[in-house]
Amino acid sequence: MLGTALAAALAALAAVLVTGQAERAAPARPAVTHPASTPHPSAHSAKPAGPRRAAASLPPAAAAAGAFVGELEAGVADGQVSPQAGQDLYNHLQQLLFAPPGQNPQQIQQQYDQLVQAYDQRVSQGQVTGHAAAALRHALAALRSAVGAS
Predict the structure, then answer these.
(1) The pLDDT of residue 55
(2) N or C: which end of the chain has fewer CB within 10 A?
């Protein structure tokens, strides 16, 4: 259930970030080509190349958020992240990514710091352990750069 919710929210995040990025880049919105509509030699396979190609075209914040969500989902599946910790970290990520438009850098920094504090708290409580703890720390660092936090 958590995996499905994470996947749906990630898809919504990507759509919002791509749309927002396109609207800021040019007054007229450029046509977006969906990877599935482009002929590809592996079109008959069970979608191995589509997600990778789509991820390469995402804005940095969406790609970093996707990596964080992927590590979070893998950690929950492996039992290295408790479901409660996964949901809490995911909620903090949503607050960072779906903040009202026009947030200043201090507000973005504050949202990012709250995500890191939630992560640190869950690690100290033993709710995030093992490889998942290191992978999530790395994903947080990439997210920091992508959103412009310090």
Answers:
(1) 52
(2) N
